Amino acid sequence: MSLLEIRDLSISLPANGRMLPIVEGISLSLNRGEVLGIAGESGSGKTMSAMAVMGLLPKDAEVTGSIRYEGRELIGLGERDFREIRGRDIAMVFQDPLSSLHPMLTIEKQLTDHLRKHRKASRSAARTRAEELLRLVQLPNPAKTLRAYPHQLSGGQRQRVAIAIALACEPSLLIADEPTTALDVTVQAGIIELLLSLTEQVDIGVMIVTHDLGVLSSIADRLAVFYAGEVVETARAAEVFSRPAHPYTEALLAAVPHESESGEIDLKPMRGTPPSAGEWPEGCRFNPRCAYVERQCYSVHPVLSESEPGHLVACHVRGAAS
Could you give the CA distance from residue 90 to residue 52 in angstroms, rounded to a whole number? Predict the structure, then answer.
């Protein structure tokens, strides 16, 4: 049984008097000890899907499909039940630790309160565990860090604290939403290395949501590529990077700066812009930007199918039926 199993997840939000579809038909799975990368441009539905797993969608959101955590259905679960799961069994590291950490509370207060609520730890036991967690995320001088306020730490240190808080109650599922955004390259590398080591040391499943393919190339075991509210390709990460099947994935990888054979930096910007939520083209949603578009792409919506064993792609040209 998978740690996390998402099947046919669809999410709509109210906008201008109607329900606007944000995500449609998402299916994903994640096992313990595995890192699942969620890639795609802004507005593709990545973060909204992660929020659905955490039970953090707006109250007026319409959600259908299934999200099972260790076999337990999460869709339709009440807020009281979610509070018992959230932070204890499923934890999330948000994009901006400066806004997700309380500016008026010390790091010790934020770490120990979390432990005392979910683990019923005593004050002294919670502080001891807090120091252990700061060592686990490789922060020097834990005692000093515990006395600090978020604004007294660097961006990289705050992100490590956010990860420590997420790990405080030993969750089996960790969701990281753009965990390296706004961090410099060397700090990014440290956060990536930390997340990799945690999957080995703590045996948790990690879902990383990011637009940064460089981050995913070095950490993800499997990759799901989102476009316009749906998954268009999913496979082992190494296969996606070496043999991208969907034209969008191919264009996304080509848009990453890389050194050409001549030694020059090669960059191929993707043409066009992604469609707004709910304003998706008929047929394949990528058809206005696709270099391989055919007549059927304008009228028939492609479904995920195997282009090769374990490699799923939603494309008329590159899919199984092509």
Answer: 12
For residue 184, give the amino acid letter: D
Could you identify the residue written with the tokens 């795609």?
40
The C-alpha atoms of residue 179 and residue 131 are separated, in whole angstroms, by 22
Closest CA to 237 of 259, 251, 254, 219: 219
Domain spans of the chain, in order of start: 4-220
- Residue 166 to residue 148: CA distance in whole angstroms: 18
Instruction: State both tokens at 22.
Output: 């944000």
Please check whether the domain covering 4-220 is classified as CATH 3.40.50.1820. Answer: no
Contacts of 141 by beta carbon, 8 Å cutoff, 6+ apart = none
Q: For residue 190, what are the CA distances in angstroms to 62, 180, 181, 203, 260?
A: 38, 10, 13, 19, 27
Instruction: Give the pLDDT confidence of 163-210 residue by residue, as tens digits.
Output: 888 888 888 999 998 887 766 666 777 777 777 777 777 778 999 998
Residue identified by tokens 């199993």 is 5
pTM given for the model = 0.89
**105 to 112, 149, 151, 229: CA distances (angstroms):** 11, 6, 10, 37
Tokens of 300: 């028939």
Angle between helices 155-167 and 185-201 (to 10 degrees): 20
The secondary structure of residue 284, as a DSSP letter, is S
The answer to whether the CB of 44 falls within 8 A of the CB of 226 is yes
CA dist 205 and 220 (Å) reads 11
Q: What is the DSSP letter of 285?
A: T
Going through 131-259 in order, the beta strands assigned E by DSSP cover: 173-177, 205-210, 222-227, 230-236, 258-259
* pLDDT tens digits, 92-141: 988 777 778 899 999 999 999 878 887 788 889 999 999 988 988 888 89
Six token digits for residue 256: 């990453």
Residue 46, amino acid: K
